[in-house]
Amino acid sequence: MNNYGTLDASYKAAGEEKGIRKLVDDFYHEMETQSKGKHIRSMHKDSLDVIKDKLSLFLMGWLGGPRKYAEKYGGISIPMVHKHLVINEEERDAWLFCMQQALKYQDYDEDFKEYLLIQLARPANRIMQVSQANHS
C-alpha cells in the first residue's frame, strides 16, 4: 500500500524537484509535438520558460514538497489563473493526454503514475468548470 498524498510521499515518488522539472519539460514537449496538444500549446506564449517554472514550482508544493511557488510568484488559485482562457472538455482532455504521454517517460512506479493522473484530473475539471461559468 502506498501513502501518496501523505506529507511529502508524492513529492518523493515524483523524484523531488529534479523529477518534477523533468516531467514538466516532457509534458510541454508532448504539448508541442502531439497533434492533440497543438491547440493548448497555442494558448501559451512562444517562450515556455516562465510557465515551465511556474508549473514545476506549483507541482512541487502540490505534491507535498517545498512551497516555492508562493515565494517566487505569490499566491495562486488554479482556476483563476486560467480564467481568461476558454477551457472545455477538448482542452481539458488534451492537457491530461499530454500529461499521460509525459508520464510514460518518467521513472515513476506505475501505481504513482496512475495516482498522479487521477489527482491532476481534479484541478483540470475545476478549471474547466470555472471557465465554462465565466464564458457562458
Quick structural overview:
With 136 residues, this protein is mainly α. Helix content is 67%, strand content 0%. It has a single domain, classed as Orthogonal Bundle (Globin-like).
* Whole-number tally of structural domains: 1
Radius of gyration: 14 Å
Secondary structure category: mainly alpha
CATH homologous superfamily classification: Globins
The mean pLDDT is: 93
CATH class: Mainly Alpha
Number of helices: 8
The general outline is globular
Helix content: 55-70%
Beta-strand percentage? under 5%
Low-confidence stretches are none
Q: How many strands?
A: 0
Name the helix and strand elements from N-terminus to C-terminus, one letter apiece: HHHHHHHH
Identify the CATH architecture: Orthogonal Bundle
End-to-end Cα distance, whole Å, is 43 Å
Largest sheet: none
CATH fold assignment: Globin-like
Walk me through the topology.
Blueprint lengths: L8 H5 L2 H18 L4 H4 L7 H14 L5 H6 L4 H4 L7 H15 L6 H25 L2
Helix pairs in contact: 2-4, 2-7, 7-8
Describe the protein's architecture and organization.
67% of the residues lie in helices and 0% in strands. The mean pLDDT is 93. The chain has a single domain, classed as Orthogonal Bundle (Globin-like). It has 136 residues and is an all-alpha fold.
Name its key features:
globular; Globin-like; 8 helices; mainly alpha; 136 residues
